[in-house]
Amino acid sequence: MCIDKYYLCDAPYTNTRGFMTPYRNTRYWLADYRRQRALTKEEIFNHEHAKLRNVIERAYGVLKVRFPILKRMAPFPFSLQRDIVVACFAVTIS
Question: CA-CA distance, 24 to 81, in Å (whole number)?
């Protein structure tokens, strides 16, 4: 794993090198911030984390509709899965 890259993860994951998880016991979901803005640095981080995860999940949802192979990736080795996802994003962007 590269030192300067991170996986944006859900709360069940451990916040270790390369994995960026939200703060525990702190508001997280976007709906939690509709009535009151983020106040502490932990809430601000969690709010930004949730917004970013939302964008990523929507992007993958759009890709899965356009490229059904993304729904059947399990039999492929990880390196091929990665290359397929990158290719799908590249075709979509260009």
Answer: 31
Q: What is the torsional sign of CA 83, 88, 92, 94? A: positive
Q: What is the mean pLDDT of residues 27-41?
A: 88
With vertex at residue 25, the alpha carbon angle to CA 24 and CA 26, rounded to the nearest 5 degrees, is 90
pLDDT in tens, 40-81: 999 999 999 999 999 989 988 999 999 999 989 888 999 999
In this structure, is the dihedral angle defined by the CA atoms of residues 47, 49, 53 and 56, taken in order, positive or negative? positive
CB 38 within 8 A of CB 44: yes
- Positive or negative CA dihedral for 81, 56, 45, 4? positive
**Cβ neighbours of residue 84 closer than 8 Å, sequence gap 6 or more:** 69, 70, 73, 76
Q: Would the CA dihedral through 67, 88, 64, 61 be positive or negative?
A: negative
